[in-house]
Amino acid sequence: MTSHLESCKEHSKERVNQLKMVLKRIGEVSENVTVIFGGDTNLRDQEVTKLGGLPSGVCDVWEYLGKPEHCRYTWDTKTNNNKKARYFCRLRFDRVLLRPAKQGAQITPQHMDLIGLEKLDCGRFTSDHWGIHCGFTVQTQTSPATTALH
Q1: pTM score, two decimals?
Q2: Is 40 part of the annotated catalytic residue set?
Q3: Residue 96 and residue 123: Cα distance in Å, rounded?
Q4: 70-77 contact pairs (CB < 8 A, 24+)
Q5: From the candidates 40, 60, 94, 128, which is the catalytic residue?
Q6: Are the CB atoms for 98 and 108 separated by under 8 Å?
Q7: What is the pLDDT of residues 60-74, one digit of tens each?
Q8: Confidence of residue 142 (pLDDT cuts 50, 70, 90)
Q9: Is 41 in contact with 19 (CB distance < 8 Å)?
Q10: How far apart are CA 79 and CA 122, in angstroms?
């Protein structure tokens, strides 16, 4: 699943409502199906806290991996000058959420990195946000071997 939630600080109420809809949709999927949601959520941590955190069984992959500092800020006006902002702001707007299946193949996050950190030949970045690249392992119930997914 993916989505782009409402931008800008002043639209917090709408963004929280949109997150509620995303979490509702995740909850509607069969328990035996893994759900991975990723997107430009524009979320601030306090907005997730305002909802009481993520529902049981849903994890924020960045948090699951121990909050690695190298991929914390997906929006960084200090490094990324596409917006030509006259201020420096670093936030974790882009997120990946995981709700593992209760039965069947198990998908486990292994690593996360930021992508799009290099400027294009035109001197600009591909976006004003960094992209997220996650690696997962998949373990089937019939085989103890794991397969890396990217």
Answers
A1: 0.90
A2: yes
A3: 28
A4: 70/113, 70/114, 71/112, 71/113, 71/114, 71/132, 73/130, 74/114, 74/129, 74/130, 74/131, 74/132, 75/128, 75/129, 75/130, 76/130
A5: 40
A6: no
A7: 999 999 999 999 999
A8: low
A9: yes
A10: 16
